[in-house]
Amino acid sequence: MPTDFATGLRCRVCGKLYPKGPTNFCTDDFGPLEVDYDYDAIRANISRDKIARRPKSMWRYGELLPVAGVPSVGPQVGGTPLIRADRLADALGVERLWIKNDAVNFPTLSFKDRVVSVALSKAREFGMRTVGCASTGNLANSVAAQAAQAGLETFILVPADLERAKIFGTAVYGAKVIGCTGTYDEVNRLCTQIALKYGWGFVNVNLRPFYAEGSKTMGYEIAEDLGWRFPQHVVCPMAGGALIGKIHKAFTELTRVGLVDQPVTTKMWGAQAAGCNPISDCVKSGRERHKPVRKPTTICKSLAIGDPADGYFAAKLMRDTGGWAEDVTDEEIVDGMLLLARTEGVFAETAGGTTVSVLRKLLEQGRIPRNEEIVICITGNGLKTQDAVFEAIEEPAVIKPTLAEFEALSGSLTAEPVLA
Amino acid sequence: MAIKVQVPTPMREAAGGNAEVAVAGATVKDALADLVRQYPALGSKLFDGGKVRPYVNIFVNDEDVRYLDDLDTKVTDGVVVALIPAVAGG
Ligand SMILES: [Zn+2]
């Protein structure tokens, strides 16, 4: 039963320490707050054996998460497969490639289940009855589902032009869904104002420091499944820019608490859509801070955050680790989705197509050596963004159910007959 | 009528407990200078070395000033300037 080793919330700008509570920024400089831990105590309490004996969920790394004991929300989240992707590797011309597949995360088929499980466990601990979020879709799905499980009242604010499957997949759980005209950034600002005024638990606002920690578990799982070591390269989609940083933070923590006995030399690579590329533009142009994109235009709505709050940290991380960022067109995004589905049987959402095509681009540019170990992060399920690939999929041929018509059609097909 | 600056909850103590402060000026820069003149304790929260801190977002009538003329954005009587902490994505 893991103890809560979090000591407080620390400002990422000035380092000031705050007590654990539903707050997300420093009152001196408005810098973002991040959970701080007693790593020496964690080191003395954690071991590979102890972790191996626990169920395969994200909570097997409970000492490194800011919740005490069994989490009250989402105890089964995480523990998704790390797939050795040899057919995709062949198609891309690389030797060793893995897919971290959060398209099959429980319960709502995206990595957001990880962050929401932590955020809502804390919301209950803080005695909140009402929770909510601003969302591009996946977060909304997860907050709605897990809040239903926790018996919390839920308000979800989304851009009104979101994919229908994502709006439906939120409302079905009984959440109050409010579509707002405008961009994600405008919706997010409204949530900040509501959170400041009403004190509800907004998972990506006043619960954010706790929420963000859930992302680390993708990194722990990658390292454990590789045999407690790190890959040479991780390619990660970027929306707000937090996930890529948290995966790297997970690696450094594993070294710090003694679970991995090698230094972190992993290069971090970020993927965005060309129609909303503030972070990759920041990296490529050498700017220190990103320039916000006012009106994102891409089919990849889950990455369409024009003003990513972690943009600065993400860009710095990629530069510091020797990585880089790229962005791809909508057409390349669809190509990436189809390539992944047809080589590995993984139907990822548009963000996954973005990640695959960005990897291809980075390989073509010679930035990632083809003989080194690469992990790509798939963060959401393609069933939610089917609209994006409808036009690219051939309609099935229609015949009468007779052998003659089938054979007439299959004359042009290539399958080997079983019987002579 | 004057220009109104909306102060977020965590800054209100430094603004004499006010949620809204009336200021004068022709640009956002002037308006914020007047705000800091009235409530000097806000100065270090909003600015660092003369520049607005990166995690403070400024809106003029609900439009982010980074899409306008930033601190040189013109303001007139009746305009609402909102100070909102930058927030992270979903
Ligand atoms: Zn601070």
From TrEMBL, chain A:
The keyword Lyase applies. Pfam families: PALP. Its cofactor is pyridoxal 5'-phosphate. Its EC number is 4.2.3.1. InterPro entries: Ser/Thr_Dehydratase, Thr_synthase-like, TrpB-like_PALP, TrpB-like_PALP_sf. It comes from the Bacteria. GO terms for biological process: isoleucine biosynthetic process; L-serine catabolic process; L-threonine catabolic process; threonine biosynthetic process. Gene3D superfamilies: 3.40.50.1100. It is an enzyme of class 4 (lyase). GO terms for molecular function: L-serine ammonia-lyase activity; threonine deaminase activity; threonine synthase activity. Residues 75-380 form the Tryptophan synthase beta chain-like PALP domain. Keywords: Lyase, Pyridoxal phosphate. The modification N6-(pyridoxal phosphate)lysine is found at residue 112. Belongs to the threonine synthase family. This is Threonine synthase. It comes from Urbifossiella limnaea.
Automatic annotation (TrEMBL), chain B:
Pfam families: ThiS. It comes from the Bacteria. InterPro entries: Beta-grasp_dom_sf (IPR012675), MoaD_arc-typ (IPR010038), Mopterin_synth/thiamin_S_b (IPR016155), SAMP1_3 (IPR054834), Sulfur_Carrier/Prot_Modifier (IPR052045), ThiS/MoaD-like (IPR003749). NCBIfam families: moaD_arch (TIGR01687), SAMP1 (NF041918). PANTHER family: SULFUR CARRIER PROTEIN CYSO, SULFUR CARRIER PROTEIN SLR0821-RELATED. This is Sulfur carrier protein CysO. The gene is cysO.
